[in-house]
Amino acid sequence: MTDQKKSSGSITRRSALGLGGIGVGAAALGVGNYYANKYAPIISTYLGQKAYEVKETGDGTEDNQYFKSSYGSSDERLAADAQAVRETAQEGFVLLKNDGALPLPAGKLTLFGVSSASILYGGGGSGTVDTSTAPTLKEALESAGFQINPTMWSFYTEGAASSIRMDVADIAGTGRYVIHEASPELFGDAEEQSLAEYSDAAIVTFARSGSESSDVPRAYDESYLEDMDIKGYAGDFHSDRLDSDADLGRHYLELTATEEALLAYVSERFNKVIVLVNSGNAMELAFLDESAYGVDACLWIGNPGQDGLYAVGDILSGVVSPSGRTVDTYAYDSLSAPALQNFGKNVMSGSDKAPFVVYQEGIYVGYKYYETRYEDCVLGQGNAEAVVGAPEGAGSWSYSDAVQFPFGFGLSYTIFEQQLLDCVEKDGVATLTVEVRNAGTVAGRDVVEVYGQSPYTDYDRENGVEKSAIQLVGFAKTDELAPSASQTVEVQVSLADLKSYDARGRGSYVLEAGDYYLAIGADAHDALNNVLAAKGVSGTDAAGDVAKAVKLTLAGSDAYETSPYTGVPVTNQFEDADVRSYDPSFVYLTRSDWAGTYPTTYDFKATSEVLAALAVQEGTDDPNASMPTTGAQNGLTLAMMRDTPAADAAWDDLLDQLSAEEMYNLVRVGGYQTQAVSSVGAPPTVCVDGPAYVGNAGTTGVTVSEKTYSWCSEVVISSTWNTARAQAMGEQIGEDCLAQGELNFAGWYAPSMNIHRTPFSGRNFEYYSEDGFLSGRFGAATVRGARSKGVITFVKHFALNDQETMRTKVATLSNEQAIREVYLAAFEPSVSGGDEGTLGIMLSMNRVGMVWSGDHRGLVTNVVRGEWGFDGVVITDQASYPQAFPLLAIRAGLGAGTDLWLNSGTDNWQIDGYASNPTVMCQLREASRHILYAVSRSLAMNGISSTTEVVPAMATWQKALTGVDVVAGVAAVAGAWAIVRNMRRAKAKVSDEAQDETDEKNEEVEA
């Protein structure tokens, strides 16, 4: 072969490779374009870019600013945020102990504990807050006039302890909860010598974190260490996992051995020792009573948020008298609650993939257990004194041994006297008039707590209706009262809040005939003693005050057999979630026999019946479904529907205008957004996560255009016992959303309303309380505030999501009475709140019984829509779990159930042939109705009038992608043309050279 031919072949091969490369590039670009277009809505939302245009077709005179800010500038708004959080913390921090050490005069203080230098301002996961401008504890105390030991501060921030910090799990549950504290052995001569000068008081901070996706450990034992190994945690036991062998067998909410050593060290050197508890979970605080640790005062501060830490200085200095109250019972032994017997990681026998949790304690959660058992001990009934599992004569159950701080407890720097002046009942509402007088020497605020007791009858015993000895039914916070000043407070109590659910008898709510008691008290235990005094009972652990209780005798009523909101009958909806549906021998805890029915860890058998119930069902088509109208030209826009009631027929005319594709995409692509719907002029929204913060949508990627603010956690807000503080939070969150303008931050995945079933739940910081009544009032107030600014709140996690362990698939089993009275009670005030209620509900990932919450007809359809009359939108939690993706997952009520999927519209959620299936189309239509109803009432409508068109447009990234496509296309064509041209030239050259060679050979032959 000649050199020319070799060269030509090389050119041809390179050209072929070049053409192949261009082809591969074009194919890759095509695939990229396909998926970019497929997921265009979620990409636009993530980037915070508009994929629509708003065109005004009218005269522009219509006022389309429906929700307006109360502030003239961002600085003014943020200043109001900061002031509101500081005042909330002032009212929400709880003084648990004070032996006269507080308030402190201006002086020199020393801070101890690694947590003093790394305060937990919020919780983990979605509860994370912005701390970029938050004060340190040192700065907060210095602002109150205290001088802080600089040597010890440097020890924790720059010195030997600067790298010692607790381990905290992340949003996905990856990680571990381990406390690491700096041992006093690390203190050098400089630290020791500094204590003499800064000796007026020692402040010791203990912190405990909570986070999404994982609960805090109930024991540091071999199983916990093995679990850490499974998750990839290796290393030396002491240095990488726990501080010492002494921590084995302890749990996360106890002090570690090193913390105990630190506290003992401090108590030996300081006359005044104050402990700060920086935890959203109720810690075990028995050490406060032990003389070895010499603690003089203890202030619980929860998670203080961005500026709440300043309230620590305000309270310690006496500028403010503490007025917070506990929202949980603080037991001496955190494991003593009956709910702890069935909590966390349990898997059905016979199946290694079927986790479950059984609420065997029934209604006896938190104080309802401790206080009810106390009354039965006093009355000598129900086998209440027997110690479970102890040999006869080994001692008896004692309230004083069990409870350190009752529900509703909190100290002040002053003394308040409360007098029950009157109680008038009319039309099912009792109005209590209470005079509160400040009998002390400093100004302060007090809380009026009202509790009720229902009769526990023979009928109840026979039919398994449980009654708590005392339950919260009303409360109010006073104004700040100067010494000797008084205030008359009225608290209205709906007798409906004393009703009980009779599942096995009447199958409905009932308010039985008998004697009911209402009482005021300093806390739940004090109120119960007042009731017992009014009943003439002796043998209580403290003298009750007869004058603080009143008896109401009721003839009985069946008025609660129908919904007060819709008039539909109230009937059993959760029999399938009751363990007794699968195990008839199962017994829930009853006050008729405390010791005999006290929960034990239940072994749930994965029978064929259970496994069949767990299987995800695809659903079936409704033979009676008819194809809805689509694409009609009725001339309606969403702005025209802003004040139209949900039941109005005009909504059907509006829905007729939607196309099948619009409905399909609106429902299935709901990840941190709702989509624009051009046919009815509906704008898109951005929905942000985070119970305390809308500063960044996080997983959506949308960064705020105007700075927002981080609030203290919900457990601090509820500890104020002042719902005005919760409403203010909702309003300020709404202001932060309004400030984002065209970004349309109209949805907020909050507030969270699950129950502190145990102290060990990873997300207790973002839930209000162990009590459904208190949680419900604070949740409703937060919603009311946010809705007033046009925010779609998605109250969550509905329902029974009271642990994080295995939350995506755990089967949660309980009885109907407990589900309704404890867990749904927290949601009902918000969901049934009408024009002031929530516009959204976020489902839980767990199963209610064997069925995913979003598919549970009793929960989502019959209770939410039927009994509570909810017209808004129901969204899934993060839709990444298998049971959320059955073909007809919205079948819970033919579209009246789950409406919106919190996902990106990926291939996990597709319905082939949806547009020709009448059943699916009817479901999509009803879901679209609920979504659009919520959007029509939101701030996203700002700028949208009745004559405004919302039309699709290319987002900036799409325009850029189009530009890339054009450039790439031109380059590909040019490159291909150049390659082909070179190949042709090469071939022509080879041909010419070959001809020349042939001619030369012919000439030689001729010669």
UniProtKB/TrEMBL annotation:
Protein known as: Glycoside hydrolase family 3 C-terminal domain-containing protein
Family of this protein: Belongs to the glycosyl hydrolase 3 family.
One MF term in the entry's GO annotations: hydrolase activity
UniProt entry tagged with the keyword Transmembrane: yes
Source organism of this protein record: Paratractidigestivibacter faecalis
Entries under Pfam families matching the protein: Fn3-like, Glyco_hydro_3, Glyco_hydro_3_C
PANTHER family (alphabetical): BETA-GLUCOSIDASE
Entries under SMART domains matching the protein: Fn3_like (SM01217)
